[in-house]
Design a protein that fits this description.
Structural class: mainly alpha
Order of helices and strands: HHHH
Distance between the termini: 36 Å
Number of domains: 1
Length: 78
């Protein structure tokens, strides 16, 4: 996965900022680790997450870039 300079700067900023919600910061750290070339299993172990979750965030980032890291609408939600 290749990040633009702007994407990398934004993700690093959100991952470091204390005011960033923890779920968003974790997603940023996942994408940054994936951009280093790490496998899903290795990223999950390093960030104390699940490998399927890492794969999901990687796929959503590849498809939608930073916008894909946000929460998507849930089906059947009122």
């Amino acid at each position: 996965m290749i990040l633009s300079d702007e994407e990398r700067a934004a993700l690093e900023g959100w991952a470091r900022r204390r005011s960033t919600p923890q779920a968003w910061a974790l997603r940023c750290r996942i994408i940054l680790a994936c951009a280093e070339g790490a496998r899903n299993k290795d990223v999950a172990a390093r960030l104390d997450s699940a490998a399927p979750a890492v794969g999901r965030w990687r796929a959503r980032f590849v498809e939608h870039r930073i916008a894909g890291l946000g929460d998507m609408p849930r089906p059947n939600a009122p």
